[in-house]
Description:
single chain, alpha+beta, 4-stranded mixed β-sheet, 3-stranded antiparallel β-sheet, 12 helices, about 45% helix
Amino acid sequence: LDGGFLKLDINDYEEIVKESSNAKKFLRPLVGGNEFIKSLKRWCIWIDDKNLNEALEINKIRERIDKVKSFRNDAGDVAKTLVNKPHQFRYRHEAKKNFILVPRTTTSSRDYLPIGYFDKKFISLESAQIVYDPPLFLFSILSSKAHMIWSKSVGGKLGTGVRYSSNLCFNTFPLENIHNDQIQLMEQASYNILEEREKFSELPISKIYSSEMPSSLLKVHKLNDDLVNKILFNRENLTAENTISLLFQKYEMYGKKEKLELF
């Protein structure tokens, strides 16, 4: 409900910073599903109330805030409730340390969900599902082929793509209590994926997570698959059919319990 005026592309960002180098303290990198997958650079204006007067001294920031106010004045009832906060988004979610990002939509031709891991300086868009300040081992689980197979089976659809949902895909994934030694192994697997992926940082995620995935990254992912399958099923080298069958068996079994503690 900002009319787009609090969001910046690279040209907007450079114009504001050119006017005042001090403006950088009011600009945060912005990421959503599309930005992550295509490696698009975007920013947003992010101002705490206590710093508003200082931010208004920068002409190009003040102009954008004025446009937000005008937009909200002329918009619907919900937008009008935000007229007195034109320097801020309606929602202001931010991580204390980091967050995991899952694009809401991904192509069904992928074997793995492209999972992002971002520093707290980033602000997320609604085009992605976010886990704020997560345990690191969760990255291993979400990056597994088993979780992608589950998401394809129970998630929504957008054309031929998979529509990822926290309620349908994340909250339903049948993961029972896991032990500290298993957590440590998954944490290391998470590091391994991130470190190997960093070697190809010049490529967009859409290229890395495609039929052209680098062989070294595919190898790391397969090791993670074996680990997750061993923890979930005490088995390795499963077909997609085996995997989804076992997952639904576990889901049905857990559904009969009064209480399921995931972690």
